[in-house]
Amino acid sequence: MYVGYMDTKERIDTLVKELNRHSYLYYVEENPSLSDFEYDEMYRELKKLEDENPSLISPDSPTQRVGAIGTKFEPFKHKIRLYSLDNSNNYEELEKWYERVEKELGKSPELVCELKIDGLAIALTYENGLFVRGVTRGDGVVGENITANLKTIKAIPLKVFNDEKTNIEVRGEIYMPKTSFEKLNEENLKNGEKIFANPRNAASGSLRQLDSSITAKRDLSMFCYTALFQDNDNDIKSHYDSILRLKELGFKVNPNIKKVSNIKGAIEYCKNWEFKRFELNYATDGVVIKVNDFALQNELGFTARAPKWATAFKFPPEEVNTKLLDIELGVGKTGAVTPVAVLEPVQLAGSTVSRASLHNFDEIKRLDVRIGDTVLIKKAAEIIPKVIKVNMEKRENGFTPYEPPKACPCCDTPLETRESEVNLYCPNSLACPEQIRAKIEYWVSKEAMDIDFVGPSLIEQLFDRKMLKSPADLYKLSQDDFMKLDLIKEKSASNIYNSIQDSKNRPLNRFLTALSIKHVGKETAQLISGHFMSLDKIYSAQIEEISAIEGVGEKIAESVYEFFHSKTSLELLSDLASCGVIPQSDEVIVKSDIFANKTFVLTGTLKNFTRDEASEKIKMLGGKTSSSVSKNTSFVIAGESAGSKLTKAQNLGVIILSEEEFLDMLKRTE
Question: Are strands 120-127 and 168-175 parallel, antiparallel or unpaired?
Fold first, then answer.
């Protein structure tokens, strides 16, 4: 709140300083010290004071991060050229580079190794400690002034720490985290918008938005890799020390920088990160190796295009071309028919790839993918291979456009489309063998009935031998039945049998999840089971009663009602009950009403308990949980990697709690 004895300027200055400090801790150090609710309260107070006193708005105020819509980006000539780097593609080339350096210097210099971020090079200018200009690399001599867009990136300080006289140019790489890249593509795919090929392209497209408010939504970040100190800090004698100085000034630097004594240490660094880099949440395509000592850098100098004191070691490619041999079709538990590219096997990001995702038939049409084409493939976030482009120059005559199927590839039922969805669906949900198998695989999964020792290969054997036609059949199999399968001995058969039997009385929410009801996932199943508490009450519920549950709605309610009034579904439920599969009631013993009339939404990963455990604690104290954020939400509990629910809560002004704050609330109820 505004403190009466402080004048307005002092209060604005205090708020700006505190908000910038907390932004640094959150976006640079990744160690937040305030809850989002507390931050938003301070931000709202600052915005109100600035609206009332526009003459007191400072350039480094967090309210100045989002600009307006521009018409074009102006060219800007760099004061000091941004050079390219020579590449070393193998360890022998690295050793030869170092030998040339040793020969010219007459000694073996210390080196610094840094991960080469796959992003966009940017030069930031600070005058008297304030960020005044940000320019793209361009051709190294002339770039584009994109200052307004760069101001939206919270990892870039608007003012340096503790040194208002600093005049400095900082250079670094703008990048988009892999998780943000995947989320952006998923949203664009749903909305029929452009799909980005990789995080670098996504970052580039985001930076070149004329409307900087769009850039602000794209979750970009930056690692700084060098600094040109213009009139102070001349006592810094090495590259490594300059990076430490940048960190002191509030810039984000990559934590994996390392000093090594010679080229042997640099090669060890490269080998260590060749595969370990895939665990990072940002894309890397190599290692930059530099002579550490500035005096030695000056002695070595430059060639016409690159410094002689640095080289970039390139990792094996993460995008490769290969031939598309065929397009296979899979049918999932929802009936969605998914195209999969069958490829000529190729090495990609540390593994052999022979299959890749094509998303859906609209994506095949957009890319104009044809069997026989040479296609560019990439691992999405280095995990799932996908086709991103066709090499049109290698297309031969006779390659015909791909025609989407008219009938289910498994049961030959005519396919259909669904309103506002891009997939094709097989409507034969109760008899299509592939859908049934997919549903059984989902039935045994961790988030459903959680049956150990039963995986896709075992289910496939049971299907092939006609021992399994529905989830209920699992409970009819004996230990001897499992011993008839390939590679299953007595001990394994016993484990499989016992694990299936132990799953008979899972909680109602897991049972509902496992049934694969259309539109009903884990979170929706929790809402429904938490409301009705028993399977019998769900049986007898009307659409209006189901849709009245917050977070459910009419579309889901109709699907649930139809499932529990379908003859085939009722036969399955009866069959399960006769096998002793009877879900436990979700009824919770309420110990207190302290959370009465309060609705919580959980998002992100919690450290101290699972979401189910957190939900149970909330219900025990009289509260409710929901899977979606609305104006009626009381609290959002945000764990690590919280996503769109957190953003929506911020926009609606919903109170956001960290996990620690939630734990404090629970302790106060004890």
Answer: antiparallel
Burial of 238-272, coded b for 16+ CB within 10 Å and e otherwise, reads bbbebbebbbebbbbbbebbbebeebebbbebbee
Residue (of 617, 631, 614) closest to 588 by Cα position = 617
Task: Identify the bridge partners of residue 626 per DSSP, sorted by sequence position.
Answer: 601
| SS3 readout for 317-372 | CCEEEEEEEEEEEEECCCCEEEEEEEEEEEEECCEEEEEEECCCHHHHHHHCCCCC
Is residue 194 pLDDT above 70, yes or no?
A: no
* HSE-CB for 358 with a 13 A CA cutoff: 31
Read off the pTM: 0.49
Residue in 437, 430, 432, 436 with CA at minimum distance from that of residue 411: 432
Q: Is 414 helix (H, G, I), strand (E, B) or coil?
A: strand
Do 413 and 407 form a contact (C-beta atoms < 8 A)?
yes
Half-sphere exposure of 330 (CA within 13 A, CB side): 15
Q: Which residues contact 172 (CB under 8 A, 6 or more apart)?
A: 121, 122, 124, 222, 223, 224, 225, 226, 251
Q: Which residues pair with 127 in a beta bridge?
A: 130
CA dist 449 and 469 (Å) reads 17
3-state secondary structure of 436: helix
Please report which confidence band the pLDDT of residue 650 belongs to, taking 50, 70 and 90 as the band edges: confident
Q: 522-532 and 611-620 are packed helices; what angle lies between their axes, rounded to 10 degrees?
A: 20
Alpha-carbon radius of gyration of the chain: 29
> 375: which strand partners?
322, 390
The C-alpha torsion from 431 through 435 and 436 to 437, rounded to 10°, is 140
The pLDDT tens digits for 454-465 are 988 899 999 889
Q: Report which of 114, 99, 104 is spatially closest to residue 266, judged by C-alpha positions.
A: 114
Instruction: Give the active site residues.
Output: 116
**For residue 266, what pLDDT is reported?**
95
381 band by pLDDT with thresholds 50, 70 and 90? very low
Q: How far is CA 155 from CA 21, 58, 181, 201, 586, in A?
A: 11, 19, 17, 19, 44
DSSP code string of 570-631? HHHHHHHHHTT--PBP--------TTTT-EEEEESB-SSS-HHHHHHHHHHTT-EEESS--T
Classified as helix, coil or strand, 142 is strand
Residue type, 618: I
Report the residue count for the chain. 670
Least confident of 242-246, 574-578, 620-624: 620-624
* pLDDT tens figures, 6-34: 578 888 888 888 887 777 665 565 455 66
Residue 132 three-state SS:
strand
pLDDT, tens digit, 9 for 90 and up, residues 61-85: 877 765 444 446 788 888 888 888 8
Contact by Cβ (8 Å): 140, 166? no
SS3 helix, strand, coil % of the chain, rounded to 5? 40, 20, 40
Q: What is the DSSP letter of 654?
A: -
- Using alpha carbons, list the distances in angstroms from residue 651 to 44, 65, 645: 12, 17, 10
